[in-house]
Each structure stands twice: as C-alpha cells, then as structure tokens.
Amino acid sequence: MLPIAGCSPGWTGSASLTSCYIAVSAYKDMNGAKKYCFDEYNATVAAPKTETENSFISKLKSGDIRIGIYGNTYQNVWEYYDGNDVNLTVFSSSPFCRDYSTIEDCITMQHDDKWKVESCSTGRGFVCQKRLNFIDHCSPLGFFQHPYQDICYKKLGSEYYDDALNACEAEGLDILMPKTEEEHAFMKWYIIEYINDNVWVGLTDIDQERTFVWNNGIDTGFRAFGYGDPNNAGGDQHCVRYDSISSYNWNDWTCNLRSTVVCQTLACQTLGKNYQYNDWTCNLRSTVVCQTLGMKYQDND
Ligand SMILES: [Ca+2]
Fold it and tell me: Separation of 223 CA from ligand 1 center, angstroms?
C-alpha cells in the first residue's frame, strides 16, 4: 500500500478525501466497533459523507461493512456519530420497509455499496476513520482527545463545583465546556462508555437565574439540557452536569454536591505550565490549529 500524505503508515486515503482509513479484522456490534476504533486509534467508525467516500470505503473490506451512522427507521432520520445530520443515503431499498425498528437502528454497507438497516447489536466488520493529518497531541500527556477536534480532555476525581474549577485551573486547564454538537456528541458517548458518572459542565446561572454563562470564552448558544431541564429544582440548581438521570444530557444541579471533573484544553495550549511538550509537536501544528480554534472559542475583545 502506497503511503498517503497526511495518513499514518498502514492507513489509506485519497487526494480528494479529508480522512484516513484502516480496515480492521475485528468483528463487533456497533458499540464495540466504536470503542475499538477509539481505543486503538483515537478514531471513529468510518461513515461516508459523499458517494465518492462511500465507494472508497466499500472497497477497503470484503463482505458487509458496518458504518458510523445511526438513526430511526420509522422516521427515516439518520445521524453521524459526530452529531451531524446525514445528507447522503444510499439505501438498497426504502428503510421504511423494515419492521424491526427500535430506538436506534444501524446501517451496514453491502458489497454493492448500497446500505441496509440492521439492529446495532448485529456484529459486523468495519473500517476505522480519522482526520487527515491527525496528530495525537493528548495521550502522551495521559489525556484523551476528541477524534474530530484538537481538544484534549483529562478526567480528575469527584468534587464540588468550585473545587472542580480550582482543580482544573491548578493544572493549567479549563473545565469541560462542550460548545458544539460535535463536542457534546463525543463527550456524551465517552462519559457513558468510560466514566459512567455525572460530570460537571463549565456553565452556571449563579449570577442571574436562567441566564447560563460559560466559565470562559464565547457562548455559541449550544445547550444540551435533557427533557424538563433546566428546572432549578428546589431553587438551588445553578450549576450544570452531564447527568445519568437525564440519559447523560445536561441537568442543572446544585453546585454543592460532588460530580466527576473533566478538564479540557486546546491541544495547542497543552504547552502550559504543567504539560511541556517537546518542541517539534508544537511547531508542527500550532499555526493552523490555534487560529481555527481561537476563532471559535476566544472572545474577540
Ligand atoms: Ca435540574
């Protein structure tokens, strides 16, 4: 296999695609496939967004291939695991015809490149996918990294909210602040799979009830509260957490109870006082990454 610019050895891609791919020999249900790609490669299950990408992925592995799209057959609504809506669908027949719809259905690509709906619990082969030029900034520091974005996360212990802020700050990090659907979709999945506990979000309405403010940076307007929240139950819920009772969507919650702390930092800012990288990692990515994420996360004033 010829090396592809921007892809690690053993991975493949093409000039027109913005991702790298690797066919794996594992055979798993949807959940297992997602964990496999993340654990092994900080990657996701390949999910085609164009016809070109669809046929490219199809040729990487013989037999049926499970792809990283889930949805609801009754509604014919499909979503990528990065939280984005699916625009391309190439079903071999109308998914409405299937009668085994559950809350979550999965999609398998057949040898003719066409898709069929299946239960997510059916084991299938799959392909892992990651961004072109992906660099693992985070795991050398003991952090984990968003597969699509240059954000590093670090899990700490269980703290009151104020102590959570202090604990992250003491490490030169921010508290978790998912400000886009893409960040939220990943974090919700990660919490369910790897943390299995309620996790603070750096968002509070301490100063003015119902006016939620991020711990720092701009407000994208993104919120992921669960059904019925924020409700300020008991009149003392001014902090926010990923909550098991909300299926790990957000719940406004009292600041004076403990939840697990996850801190975050932009990958290019992990050069802070506590986490010195060696020079080459910084120099490789700093210009592009910092400009992009800077636009998104930092105040302009
Ligand atoms: Ca609440």
Answer: 14
CA of 238 to the centre of ligand 1 (A): 9
Q: How far is the CA of 224 from the centre of ligand 1 (A)?
A: 13
Closest C-alpha among 179, 227, 225 to residue 202: 179
Domain 19-131 coded CATH 3.40.640.10 = no
Confirm if 221 and 212 have CB atoms less than 8 A apart: no
List pLDDT tens digits, range 139-169.
Answer: 888 899 999 888 999 999 999 999 999 999 9
Q: Which fold has domain 139-297?
A: Mannose-Binding Protein A; Chain A (3.10.100)
Q: How far apart are CA 209 and CA 236, in angstroms?
A: 10
The rounded Å distance from CA 218 to ligand 1 centre is 24
CA dist list (Å): 136 to 142, 148, 149, 150, 207: 11, 11, 11, 9, 38
For 211-251, write each residue's pLDDT tens digit: 999 999 999 999 999 999 999 999 999 999 999 999 999 99
- Name the residue among 128, 153, 118 with its Cα closest to residue 266: 153
